[in-house]
Amino acid sequence: MTTNNLVLSGTITRSRRFKSPAGIAHSVIMLEHKSQRYEADMLRNVYVQIQVILSGPRFESVAEDLKAGVELQVQGFMTLQQGRNGQNRLVIHAENVELKT
Q1: Which BP terms does GO give this entry (predicted)?
Q2: Nearest to 100 by CA among 53, 38, 48, 33
Q3: How confident is the model at residue 88 (pLDDT cuts 50, 70, 90)?
Q4: Which residues contact residue 36 at a Cβ distance below 8 angstroms, ignoring those fewer than 6 apart?
Q5: Contact 36, 44 (CB under 8 A)
Q6: Neighbouring C-beta atoms of residue 29, cutoff 10 Å
Q7: Under a CB-based contact definition with an 8 Å cutoff, are residues 26 and 93 in contact?
């Protein structure tokens, strides 16, 4: 199987920008999503915080706008990222982003 596509909307709670040693621009944001969904005919509260990574020149035009409190929708793929502490976590690598505010 090769399908790996996710669309998620939410509010930015943190953001930072940096350039890699190769000179590639990166924006890393923490996206907070809250909603309600039906599951087994019952309404369920849904909450998730997930890191989103936006890399390359196509995101440089929106990088200044990626600040706490901004609402957006991101489309991309998920992957595991290993932190400095050795813990694995899921992150989204953005392929498209749409600012909502």
Answers
A1: DNA replication, synthesis of primer
A2: 33
A3: very high
A4: 43, 44, 45, 46
A5: yes
A6: 27
A7: no
pLDDT 10s digits, 40-53: 999 999 999 999 99
CB 88 within 8 A of CB 82: yes
For residue 94, give every residue at least 6 positions away whose Cβ sits within 8 Å of its Cβ, in sequence order, or none: 52, 53, 54, 55, 59, 74, 75, 76
What is the dihedral sign for C-alpha 37, 2, 56, 50?
Answer: positive
Burial (CB < 10 A; 0-12, 13-18, 19+), residue 12, is buried
